[in-house]
Design brief:
Helix content is about 80%, strand content about 0%. The chain contains 11 helices and no strands. It has helices spanning about 1-25, 40-45, 50-80, 90-100, 105-125, 135-160, 165-170, 175-205, 205-210, 220-230, 235-264. The chain is globular. The chain starts with a helix and ends with a helix.
Length: about 260
C-alpha cells in the first residue's frame, strides 16, 4: 500500500510535466497534438531572439536579486539569532518574515506604490526620471528573497553551537575575525541554500514582476504568461523541456558532489 500510494502521488505530480516534455518533440504546430517525432521546436526556440533576450534578463535579475537577498537576509538572520533580546526585535522579525505570508498581489501592489512614490520624489527633487524596469524587478525580488534567506540563516545560527565562537573570542580573536573565520564558514551552506532559493523564486515569479516591471523589463515567465492571451506555441513546451533538463542536471551534479564528499 505504501508503494502504491507513492506511485500514485508521483504519477499525479509528474504525469503532466512528462506529457508536456513529450509534446515538445512533436512536429505538429498544435502544442498538445502529436504529429511525429521532431526537434523543430528546439531549433525555433534557439532562433527566437525575443525569448533569448527575456531569458538572459531573467537570469541576470535572478542572480542579482539572489545576491542582494543573501547579503541583507544574512545580516537580518544573524541579528535575530545573535543579538539576543533588543528593542524592536519583535518588529524586525515580523517585518523580515512578512513576505513569507503576504499574498503576492499585496506585495506587488505595495512595491508598485513605493516605486511610483520614489519616482515622483526623484523627479521633483533631483530632476531624475526613474522608469520601472529591470532594476525595480531586481529590488522587488530581493525584498521577497531576503525573507527566505533570513529564515534559513537564523535557523542555522540558532542550531549552531555558540561555544565555538566563544572559544575563538577567548583566544584573542576580535568580533570581525570570529565572524570571518568561524561563523561564516559554518553558515556557508545555509547562505548557499538561501541564495539558490532566492534565485529560484526570482526566476519563477510572474505576479510581482508584472506589477513593478516596465516596457524594458519583460522577463521570461512574463513572456510565457502573456503568450496565453494569443495562444501557446510548441516552443513553450520545448522551453519547459530545456528547463527541466537543466534542473535535472544541476540536481544530479549536486547529488554526485554530496556522495563524493560523504565518501571522503
Amino acid at each position: 500500500m505504501r508503494r502504491l500510494g507513492l506511485a500514485i502521488g508521483l504519477g499525479f505530480l509528474w504525469a503532466p510535466i512528462l506529457l508536456m516534455v513529450a509534446y515538445a518533440f512533436s512536429a505538429d504546430r498544435i502544442p498538445f497534438q502529436w504529429g511525429g517525432f521532431s526537434l523543430r521546436w528546439f531549433v525555433a526556440l534557439a532562433a527566437n531572439e525575443r525569448m533569448r533576450e527575456a531569458a538572459s534578463l531573467s537570469l541576470r535579475i535572478a542572480a542579482g536579486a539572489a545576491t542582494l537577498a543573501t547579503l541583507l537576509g544574512g545580516l537580518a538572520g544573524w541579528a535575530l539569532a545573535r543579538f539576543g533580546r533588543f528593542r524592536g526585535r519583535a518588529l524586525l522579525g515580523v517585518l523580515a518574515g512578512a513576505p513569507l505570508v503576504l499574498p503576492e498581489v499585496v506585495t506587488g501592489l505595495s512595491l508598485l506604490l513605493l516605486f511610483v512614490m520614489a519616482q515622483a520624489a526623484a523627479e521633483a527633487w533631483l530632476g531624475w526620471r526613474l522608469g520601472r524596469g529591470a532594476v525595480t524587478i531586481l529590488l522587488a525580488h530581493a525584498t521577497i528573497g531576503m525573507a527566505y534567506v533570513a529564515l534559513v540563516v537564523q535557523a542555522r545560527l540558532v542550531a549552531l553551537d555558540a561555544s565555538l565562537e566563544e572559544a575563538a573570542a577567548d583566544l584573542g580573536a576580535g568580533p570581525f575575525t570570529v565572524l570571518r573565520t568561524v561563523t561564516l564558514p559554518l553558515i556557508a551552506p545555509s547562505l548557499a541554500a538561501g541564495w539558490l532559493l532566492a534565485f529560484t523564486l526570482s526566476l519563477d515569479d510572474v505576479v510581482v514582476a508584472s506589477f513593478v516591471s516596465g516596457p524594458a523589463g519583460t522577463t521570461l515567465p512574463m513572456m510565457v504568461f502573456s503568450a496565453l492571451k494569443v495562444g501557446l506555441t510548441p516552443e513553450v513546451n520545448a522551453l519547459a523541456a530545456l528547463i527541466l533538463a537543466v534542473a535535472a542536471l544541476a540536481v544530479g551534479l549536486a547529488g554526485l558532489a554530496l556522495r563524493r564528499r560523504g565518501t571522503e
